[in-house]
């Protein structure tokens, strides 16, 4: 393939643990590990990142929020700085206790990670802290308890087999 760099990469795949196909859209950032396997066949190692991460790397902002829930602040950051570059959704668990914060010249992902430190669950008042991550369903911002109550992504079964020599 005639790769130069910055091409759009679309990868669609299916795994045994997921019923539907998964699709990743990204931007090519690096090509290396070129190897000729046989005549007419070559192998490359490519690195690529999501369009949201590209935008995140190019964006720094400062903004003040006055007497808002942290979950609303996170929603505002995603809506204003990231949602227009991709088709991913963001699931945000509601927080309690409105507060005021000033985001000091940060990237959107950096600001959201920073806000996880102060977020407290509206539903689990004595629960654990919030986390921010991406999975096959999009971006997730919520407490560990709320995320654990969500749909199961995959189920794995492990059977321990004991065999002795000469037996099946």
Structure description:
The chain is α+β, with helices and mostly antiparallel strands. Helix content is 20%, strand content 38%. The protein has 4 helices and 8 strands. The protein has helices at 51-58, 70-81, 108-116, 144-148; strands at 8-13, 22-38, 41-49, 61-68, 90-92, 99-106, 130-135, 138-143. The strands form 3 sheets. Strands 1-2-3 form a 3-stranded antiparallel beta sheet. Strands 5-8-7 form a 3-stranded mixed beta sheet. Strands 4-6 form a two-stranded antiparallel sheet. Strand 7 and strand 8 (138-143) form a beta hairpin. Helix 2 (70-81) packs antiparallel against helix 3. The chain is flat, with a radius of gyration of 22 Å. It starts with 7 loop residues before the first strand and ends in a 20-residue tail after the last helix. The mean pLDDT is 85.
Q: What are the salient characteristics of this protein?
A:
flat, 4 helices, 3-stranded antiparallel β-sheet
* Order of helical and strand elements: EEEHEHEEHEEH
Percentage of residues in helical conformation: 10-25%
Average pLDDT taken over every residue: 85
Low-confidence stretches: none
**Shape field:** flat
Number of helices: 4
Sheet having the most strands: 3 strands, antiparallel
The side-by-side strand order for the widest beta sheet comes to: 1-2-3
Task: Tell me the strand percentage band.
Answer: 35-45%
Determine the N-to-C terminus distance: 48 Å
Structural class: alpha+beta
Q: What is the β-strand count?
A: 8
Q: Give the C-alpha Rg.
A: 22 Å
């Amino acid at each position: 393939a005639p790769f130069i760099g910055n091409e759009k990469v679309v990868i669609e795949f299916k795994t045994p643990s997921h019923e539907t196909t998964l699709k990743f859209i990204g931007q090519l950032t690096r090509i290396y590990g070129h190897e000729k396997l046989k005549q007419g066949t070559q192998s490359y190692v490519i690195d690529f990142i999501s369009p949201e991460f590209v935008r995140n790397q190019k964006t720094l902002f400062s903004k003040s929020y006055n007497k808002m829930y942290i979950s609303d602040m996170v929603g505002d950051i995603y809506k204003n700085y990231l949602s227009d570059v991709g088709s991913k959704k963001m699931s945000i668990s509601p927080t309690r206790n409105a507060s005021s914060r000033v985001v000091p010249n940060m990237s959107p992902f950096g600001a959201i990670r920073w806000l996880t430190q102060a977020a407290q669950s509206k539903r689990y008042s004595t629960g654990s802290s919030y986390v921010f991550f991406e999975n096959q369903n999009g971006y997730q911002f919520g407490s560990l308890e709320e995320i654990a109550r969500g749909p199961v992504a995959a189920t794995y079964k492990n059977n321990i087999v004991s065999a002795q020599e000469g037996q099946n």
